[in-house]
Target: Oxidoreductase
Amino acid sequence: MLNGALIGCGFFAMNQLNAWRDIEREGGGARIVALCDRDPERLAAAATRFGIERTYPDAAEMMARETLDFVDIATTAPSHRGLVELAAANRLPVICQKPVAPTFDDAKAMVAACEAAGVPFMIHENFRWQSPLIAVREAIDGGAIGTPFWGRVSFRSGYDVYAGQPYLAEGERFILEDLGVHVLDTARFLFGDVAGVAARTNRVNPRVRGEDVATVLLSHENGATSIVDCSYSSRLEQELFPQALVEIDGSDGSIRLSANYRLAVTGKFGTEVRDVSPPLLPWAERPWHNVQESVLLIQRHWVDCLRSGKAPSTSGRDNLGTYALVEASYLSAATGKTVDPRTL
Ligand code: NAD
Ligand code: 89Y
Model:
């Protein structure tokens, strides 16, 4: 049994703790044995809710006292670098929530620290673990549409994300860093690495400090072109939060992941339509169930990687490729120029 500790018992960590409990109950070989939060009320509430007795206000003290196989960091970005470096110094494999850090230099330093310590490092970049997006990737790999040459990953919503995550309205950077990072990672996952980024941003909601709308044009190394677009200022006939919609055109056909998880794959012999709705886990709540299932899947993957010694799909090193797209998007939006993310 792998013994883990979770740091940061806030809004999103409840999903991670529910998923860890599922993994323990299903005999998945991992459990959370200790919790840390510098906020005593949040720490006590999580400890009671999940029946975890060992609690700490300080991560360094927890790592010194506990015998752990990994740590799972669910705090917000400003604390990520210090906590990941602390885990590396303690030779502890570490998962860290997205966005990996406030700056690209921090992210690179975190990857370097884990590599120098020889510890596995995974970013909790869970969108590519959403089962509808896995179904899209499988449809590409199945070959029915031939070679993709164009794509779009779109996330447009008017959902009040600020109610659960008030800090999102306060930062100088917003949608590209918080949500765009997922959508850009999805584009990398589906279409491959990127040679050019051209982005434009808008701030529509006056209550939000950073940009809340972004449109990014990606030139992929394999010649495909894709569009990533995100908005938290879109009032739509159907509110689809937190669904990412996907369009892909290939040499032999097309894929459309449209509203409410309808997947249409058109090939040379016609169109196959499937409902790829994610399951509603017992602890999940609509509309978050899609994201919540992906938390369980990525955490299972982490346990699998620790046991087999393989690198996680969203390793710290892999995630530098995604972070470079976020950085390139901000730079492109600020300068009006196309940016090669590989030069950052
Ligand atoms: P939150 O503010 O609700 O919770 C963070 C908790 O961490 C707080 O309780 C805080 O007291 C604690 N904390 C902060 N620094 C600490 C430290 N150094 N030591 C101990 N405790 C510390 O934040 P949240 O909304 O839960 O977001 C956490 C992270 O999850 C963010 O990085 C966010 O981007 C990410 N997130 C991811 C998804 C996803 O789908 N992957 C969704 C929502 C949020
Ligand atoms: O923080 C964000 C995330 O990671 O997924 C959706 C979100 O909760 C709000 O944009």
